[in-house]
Amino acid sequence: MKRRIILLGPPGSGKGTLAARLQQEFGLNHVSSGHLLRREVERGSVIGQSVKVFLEKGELVPDRSMLRFMGEWIKSAPVNEGFLLDGFPRTMSQARALDEWLAARNAPIEAVILYDCDLKLILDRITGRWSCSKCGRVYHIYSVPPKAAGLCEDCLGALTQRADDRETVVRKRFEIYKRQTKPLAKYYEQQGKLTVVDAALSPDERFAKSAAALN
Ligand SMILES: [Zn+2]
């Protein structure tokens, strides 16, 4: 089974939910760069302070900051145990850097799954998304509602909507995604590693297609 995997797709394509399921079923280590960065923002670290404004505006964190941040992460990451990388790379220079870092450790990317998705589907999904302010668990008012309104089922933390879940921000992020991230699909296709999954499929169908790509 392939164990070093990249998930590509616009924010709101359902990547996060699927990553959680792949992690559970296959024991893959889910690494979300967005989650890692938000943790730094909460800590108020130097990198956190420098990326906060970009996260809030829904803009991509500048390449240089992202490369430094993820370059540090990968130094201590157990790459031989595998990972499911979500949110990085987002630009061609990040993709090339990642390939170099992994080549140096003789642990190349083995598969890339793209959740292909149009803007309308994302708007429907993302504007209903709420997450726990304590543990980060994600709910959705339509598809994954919490048992008690406004409360996390795991830790009873209050559910909040992220500042970057507003519609204009979502539209902007989608534009950025199309412009900068879609060329990555081509890059990985040329390496023979890409599988495209239609994000409009049901969660079970998406999971089955994704799982098949790892075998
Ligand atoms: Zn919680």
3D architecture notes:
The chain is of the alpha/beta class. 49% of the residues lie in helices and 15% in strands. The protein has eight helices and eight strands. The protein has helices spanning 15-26, 33-43, 46-57, 63-76, 92-104, 119-126, 167-190, 203-214, and strands at residues 4-8, 30-32, 83-86, 111-116, 129-132, 138-140, 159-160, 194-198. It has a five-stranded parallel sheet, with helices on both faces. Strands 6-5-7 form a three-stranded antiparallel sheet, with no helix packed on it. Helix 2 (33-43) crosses helix 3 (46-57), helix 4 runs parallel beside helix 5 and helix 6 (119-126) crosses helix 7 (167-190). The protein is globular and about 45 Å long. The site of zinc ion has 8 residues, from loops. Residues 132, 134-135, 137, 152, 154-155, 157 line the site of zinc ion.
List the helices and strands and how they pair.
Blueprint lengths: L3 E5 L6 H12 L3 E3 H11 L2 H12 L5 H14 L6 E4 L5 H13 L6 E6 L2 H8 L2 E4 L5 E3 L18 E2 L6 H24 L3 E5 L4 H12 L1
Parallel strand pairs: 1-3, 1-4, 2-3, 4-8
Antiparallel strand pairs: 5-6, 5-7
Helix pairs in contact: 2-3, 4-5, 6-7
The structure holds zinc ion.
